[in-house]
Amino acid sequence: MTSTATPSTLSRPAARAAAPAGAAIEFRGVQKSYGATSVLEDLSLHIEAGEFIALLGPSGCGKTTALRILGGFETPSGGDVLVDGESVLPLPPHRRGIGMVFQSYSLFPNLTVRKNVEFGLALRRVPRAERKRIALEMLETVRLGGFENRYPNQLSGGQQQRVALARALAISPGILLLDEPLSALDAQVRAGLREEIRELQLRTGITVVFVTHDQEEALAMADRVAVMRDGRIQQIATPDELFFRPEGAFVAGFVGVTNELPVAARSPQPEFWAPPADAAAADRLFVRPDALVCEPSTDAVGTVTSHLFLGATTRITVETFDGAHRVKVDLPTHQVVTVPVGERVAIRLTQPAIYRVAADVSVPAGAVVPEAAEFFRQRAASA
Fold first, then answer.
1. In CA terms, which of 51, 263, 291, 305 is 20 to 30 Å from 94?
2. CA separation for the pair 204, 176 (Å, rounded)
3. DSSP 117-167
């Protein structure tokens, strides 16, 4: 399903540029097929000027194809793409006012850093002195002042990606496309650069469309996230809404870590969970690991089989006695000593499920216990 939810400032940075320099984007019923293979089906999406949108989904869902169509590197089989209300389909890539940063840095190895940044300006016949001024300014913006005379092979991966970002911004685009630009970097550099990209976007007001398969990046950086599957948008929402109020089983299972816990059909959410006798006729609750607690009990339903240290929390896996279910529970690390591997434990639900799939198809999907919507609304508002 597609959603027309408007952008939210809920838990997002508020330091936007006073007058966004970005352009508005609209995909109208965009389709793309390669022979009999459909890659995009009726993609409709409106992006506000100055908004940061992430396209998130598994490999082959169509997110990169959508980005390439917007950039002018692919032609859609149907539909239209508009920038500030005007179709850009007749325009070549260099006339769309769009900058793009790829996963591969695509820097010219025989050119200095400054010349790499000037490249797009040279194609546009910007005078030499102006090109130099803009390039040096952009390098300062991405914290590479003083690196202008180096060559790409003298830079780290993170520095090369900053050069690619400076080159994309040098042409003053209204839109910046990011195609998994951080995936080739190590974890520490990636975390730092994503904060820098977000800060730069907020400062300039440019519109950003960011393609990634990394959920953490999408949820941390974007104003809204569009989750895609099989060429369609399943849900587009703020990170808070997406995480706590998914609109379908795919989104509930894809975004973040969830447990699917069978419960008796049409029953209220239990305080303590136990597998129902007839799992085939049961409803399924989608429950986050941090919404569960496991504790030693004479009413145990399973055994602790492993601990995964995550820092402040530890992820505990509990296997039910019948071997049919492996439940993930996140506990504060200092509490883990109470549930060592091999301990027989009960599983208690401390928060409402985020989604419910009913065994009875006549029951609306997502009908979780009544207090769930209010619970997550208050939790998101206090974040």
1. 51
2. 11
3. HHHHHHHTT--HHHHHHHHHHHHHHTT-TT-TT--GGGS-HHHHHHHHHHH
Instruction: Look at residues 235, 287, 237 and name the one whose alpha carbon lies nearest to residue 262.
Output: 287
Distance CA 50, CA 207 (A): 4
CA 34 to chain centre: 26
Distance CA 345, CA 323 (A): 14
Contact status, residue 246 vs residue 355, Cβ threshold 8 Å: yes
In the block, which residue shows the tokens 């002018």?
72
Q: Confirm if 142 and 166 have CB atoms less than 8 A apart.
A: yes
In this structure, are residues 142 and 200 in contact, taking their beta carbons and an 8 Å threshold? yes
Q: Is the dihedral of CA 140, 146, 148, 150 positive or negative?
A: negative
Residues 288, 257: Cα–Cα separation, whole Å: 6
| Helix, coil or strand: residue 109 | coil
Q: In the predicted model, is pLDDT for residue 220 greater than 70?
A: yes
The CB density around residue 38, as the number of other CB atoms within 10 Å, is: 15
Q: What is the pLDDT of residues 150-193, one digit of tens each?
A: 999 999 888 898 899 899 888 888 999 998 877 767 777 778 78
Helix (H) or strand (E) holding 317: strand 313-320
Helix (H, G, I), strand (E, B), or coil: what is residue 83?
strand
Contacts of 317 (CB under 8 A, 6+ apart): 304, 305, 306, 308, 326, 327, 328, 329
Q: What six digits make up the tokens of 71?
A: 């950039």
The CA-CA-CA angle for residues 134, 102, 120, to 5°, reads 30
